[in-house]
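# nightly structure sweep
# worker-07 picked up a monomer target from the shared queue
# config: single-sequence mode, recycle default, output format = structure tokens
# input follows
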Amino acid sequence: MVRPANGFLSALSADDYESIRSHLRTVDLPHDAVLVETGEVLKRAYFPHRGVISLVVKLAKGEHVQVAMIGRGSLLGAFSATGDACALNTAVVLVPGVASVMDLDRLRIAADQSGTLRTLLTRHGLAVYAQVQQTAGCNAAHPVESRLSRCLLQTHDLSGDHRLLLTQEAMAQMIGARRNSVSLVANTLQQADFIHYSRGHIQITNLEGLRQTACECYAIVKAQYDRLLGAH
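# output follows
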């Protein structure tokens, strides 16, 4: 049986996948769709096939700062399926796509009955947590150019596409910077022929150039994902 193109679902054992298969359904992920707000109860787990989900912290003065992204390799709801379902941040569709979804209660029941499923959920949750930690340090210490390069590389990896639909506002949220700073840095990356950027449409033209410009945080997060999820 062909499984949906999602890393978490692909990594499940035959028995674990069969325990949730009938509860999965496919939905679109429209751009800017809010999947859950901070403090709400997450009711569904999302397994993207394409597209990227942004985890966002909203501050009192109206600033929105991204703390992590979830794409085709993982799921939204890993820790919620094994613990508290109250959302710690807002989840918004950053890059439109398609996902499998299922009721979180059903996933929780399956996890309660399978140690291997619980372990995989924990590993995916830890991978996202590692990304959150590294993003916090990166946004506090590294230059805007390095941070934007990191986020573009991560978005490419998570979506599997060289072409991205990202406004200046979205990129500012991604790296915790002002829009005018993002505009200047995006122009610099374009002049270096690393990207082509026009009216919210980004085409990555030189991945290696972005890797050379990005800070060490991109490689560190990737290594953590490989360690936690690569062989499982």
